[in-house]
Amino acid sequence: MSKLPRSSRLASPVDTTVHGEYRILQRPDDPRPLYRFSGHVVDDPQPGRYHVYAGWFCPWSQRVTIAHALAGLHDIVTVSYVDNARDGRGWAFREKYGPDPVNGFTLLRQAYEATEEGFDGHVSVPTLWDRTTAQVVSNDFKGIGIDLATSFRHVATPVLDTYPEAHREEIEQLDAWLGPAVNRGAPDSTAFLDALGTLDERLATRRFLIGPAITEADIRLYVTLVRYGAGLAGFPHLWDYARDLYTVPAFRDTTDFTTYSAPVLLDWNAPVQRPEGIAA
Q: Which stretches of the chain are DSSP H helices?
């Protein structure tokens, strides 16, 4: 890591007057995906090789940090956080969460430019970095979460298997509906509220979305529910389910309500009564 003074390894404050607002630019004739990097963890990965750049505010990042915790990777894959605000330069490292512990970059964009000269795509969190190749492996949040859940069992003991082979097809089938309707849906739209109603009915008789224990499906739904706000109280089984997940350290410890745009108007520590199931 760079030996420069701490202050010289931090980005200057957000300044949209000088740097403008961040824009996701993608030309209509550009066939490349928005999330440019979609590589995977190598076979037989070793402890310390990979690092996740995350953001407390970001639901896609939280999906990955929950998966990371439930896979037992605290000492295997390192994690650090970008600042909660950005200007036209994109995500940056500032005093609140400290400097980049891997490369000493001040801007996350530098990791992308180190991987692809002249990079002109979307700079996003989470980002998976490979210390061995000194490149970005992936900024595909879905792929990163699955890799963390499945690729390190030779060096780590998972708290739970969140992507069990027996349920993978069902997890992805459910995600094909939940992704557009809930995770990327417009809050309080008819489609969003109808989906929450359907989920509320589903969770009246089961503790988790699929099977007897927490899976990737629950992780993907939770990160939206925890940001939804007071409207969640209108769906009693879904509200109990969300609080039940919040009691699990991997979910609670990756949740920072102060970084979410919706005010916290509900008691997330209220007692929970749920059907039987296996928690972490």
A: 16-19, 59-70, 109-115, 141-150, 168-178, 190-202, 216-225, 236-246, 249-252
Q: For the purposes of burial, counting CB atoms within 10 Å of the CB of 117, is it exposed (0-12), middle (13-18) or buried (19 or more)?
A: exposed
Domain covering 6-150, topology: Glutaredoxin (3.40.30)
Mean pLDDT (the chain) is 93
Residues of the chain with pLDDT under 70: 1-8, 278, 280
The answer for residues whose C-beta is within 8 angstroms of residue 171's C-beta and 6 or more apart is 163, 210, 215, 216, 217
Measured CA to CA, the distance from residue 24 to residue 35 in angstroms comes to: 11
- DSSP helix/strand/coil, 80: strand
Residue 44 is given by DSSP the state S
Compute CA distances 43 → 71, 118, 151, 153, whole Å: 17, 29, 8, 11
Q: Provide the pLDDT for residue 228.
A: 92
Give the whole-angstrom CA distance, residue 148 versus residue 77.
Answer: 9
CA gap 211, 230 in Å, rounded: 28
Q: What is the pLDDT of residue 274?
A: 83
Top CATH class, 165-259: mainly alpha
Residue with tokens 């509900």: 266
**Per-domain residue ranges of the chain:** 6-150, 165-259
Contact between 109 and 90 (Cβ < 8 Å): yes
